[in-house]
Amino acid sequence: MKTVRIATRKSALALWQAEYVRERLEHFHPKLSVELVKMTSKGDRILDAPLAKIGGKGLFVKELENSLLAGRADIAVHSMKDVPMSFPDGLGLATICPRENPLDAFVSNHYNHLEELPEGAVVGTSSLRRQCQLLKLRPDLTIRFLRGNVNTRLAKLDNGEYDAIILAAAGLIRLDMADRIRNCLTTEQCLPAAGQGAVGIEIRSDDKTIRQLLEPLHDQDTADRVLAERAMNRRLNGGCQVPIACYSELQGDELFIRGLVGQPDGRLLLEAQTHCHRSEGETAGIQVAEKLLQKGADRILNELMHE
Ligand SMILES: NCc1[nH]cc(CCC(=O)O)c1CC(=O)O
């Protein structure tokens, strides 16, 4: 077997995820040689605009996909949260790895909880999903633009530009900065993004050798959850740039799915849920989306598209 080449972005988190996949591959196949092919994505280059405004889905994955299609790499490692709902011809998702903590983390140098923040405090996030849920709980807060990789965001917090920031707990834990987490927002406070905390691996659909090598890295519990969450997002046409949240949990073979669409100002949050056998997650995810649409989700989402 030749060398397996992993396409990855150069951010610390992307590199951690690629190294993780390399380590797992080498663990299961000790004779295999694995190398990283590092590249910069559009989402990494343009840091001064909200993701929603630089437009297009898949800002973080297009370059990686092109390298797969051109045969410069064999697998691409992604945060499932950033993976678009559909794949280019010839590519597909082969593997979903075990999920890390899926919650959003409250990070601050002065306050222990969201509730402790003083009136009018400044909270950093550029996610409309986080913004709408935070404003629902605390309409007095000022939400201020914050983008960049995890280290950049923490540096801006430490500069005193924000009273607190919200980041995915998974990123902090993976980068060995769990000590920055004051607490995790509960799913009642802030429902996570579809796929948050899970790493996915994309390959050329016809590459049977690679597919087989990746099999032991797959986690079916995570996959059943994440595919249901993504099915809801897909039905609503949403990526991680829109105020949509979806989270599911397994209890035995029963999958519980919750979805949310919010008005960015937090004055209107629509919620829906269902449960099903774990093998029916994608259908049930679509049902949650349809319940949200019946409640008026399309009005919120259309308004955002025409802004
Ligand atoms: N949108 C950027 C992004 N994509 C994945 C993660 C975190 C790790 C994960 O969800 O797996 C982050 C950073 C963040 O939201 O704080």
From TrEMBL:
EC number per UniProt: 2.5.1.61
Role played: Tetrapolymerization of the monopyrrole PBG into the hydroxymethylbilane pre-uroporphyrinogen in several discrete steps.
Record domain Porphobilinogen deaminase N-terminal: where: 4-211
SUPFAM superfamilies: Periplasmic binding protein-like II, Porphobilinogen deaminase (hydroxymethylbilane synthase), C-terminal domain
Cofactor(s) needed by this chain: dipyrromethane
List of residues that carry S-(dipyrrolylmethanemethyl)cysteine: 240
Domain of life of the organism encoding this protein: Bacteria
Gene3D superfamilies documented for this protein: Periplasmic binding protein-like II, Porphobilinogen deaminase, C-terminal domain
Membership in a protein family: Belongs to the HMBS family.
Additional observations: The porphobilinogen subunits are added to the dipyrromethane group.
Binding note for cofactor: Binds 1 dipyrromethane group covalently.
Pathway stated in the Swiss-Prot or TrEMBL entry: Porphyrin-containing compound metabolism; protoporphyrin-IX biosynthesis; coproporphyrinogen-III from 5-aminolevulinate: step 2/4
Protein name: Porphobilinogen deaminase
All residue ranges annotated as the Porphobilinogen deaminase C-terminal domain in the record: 225-294
Substrates-to-products reaction catalysed: 4 porphobilinogen + H2O = hydroxymethylbilane + 4 NH4(+)
Source organism of the structure: Endozoicomonas euniceicola
Subunit structure: Monomer.
An MF annotation (GO) of this entry: hydroxymethylbilane synthase activity
Annotated keywords: Porphyrin biosynthesis, Transferase
InterPro entries: HemC, Porphobilin_deaminase_cofac_BS, Porphobilin_deaminase_N, Porphobilinogen_deaminase_C, Porphobilinogen_deaminase_C_sf
